[in-house]
Amino acid sequence: EQLHNGEKLHKCGNSCSQRSYLISHWRIHMGEQPYEYDKCRKRFPTSSHLLSYQQLHTDDRPFCCPACRMGFKHNSSLLTHRHIHTKETSYECPECGESFSQSSLIVHQRSH
Which residue range or ranges hold the C2H2-type domain (predicted)? Predict the structure, then answer.
């Protein structure tokens, strides 16, 4: 299968704007896994898959909340967390005083 910018991959019809994205996607279909985690020998089709896996195995939490200094492994988790610090989306548990989004508070209250 040819890998050219803007060309569709025949296996799934997916097209990518950059050649590197198409190559990464192609590796998934072909079962190629050139990236290896040296600690457990697990292999991955893309470097980003490897990096995500490595983060699961470390205690590194580089994304820090400026309001409470709580650390997170992923920026998306920090963004979700930061909503608890705004008054319009912060709901306090009457049992323990912790703050949550409205939907998270409902789930949390079931634990009491």
Answer: 7-34, 35-62, 63-90, 91-112
On whether the CB atoms of residues 27 and 46 are closer than 8 A, the answer is yes
Classify domain 1-58 at the CATH superfamily level: Classic Zinc Finger (3.30.160.60)
15: left (phi over 0), alpha (psi -120 to 50) or beta: beta
What percent of the chain is predicted at pLDDT more than 90? 20
H helices, E strands: number in the chain: 4, 6
Q: What is the distance between the alpha carbons of residues 75 and 88, in angstroms, rounded to a whole number?
A: 22
pTM greater than the 0.70 cutoff: no
- Which residues are within 8 A (CB) of 43 and not within 5 positions of it... i.e. 6 or more apart? 33, 34, 35, 36, 37
Please list the residue range(s) of the chain that carry CATH number 3.30.160.60.
1-58
* pLDDT at residue 2, as a whole number: 47
For residue 69, the SS3 value is coil
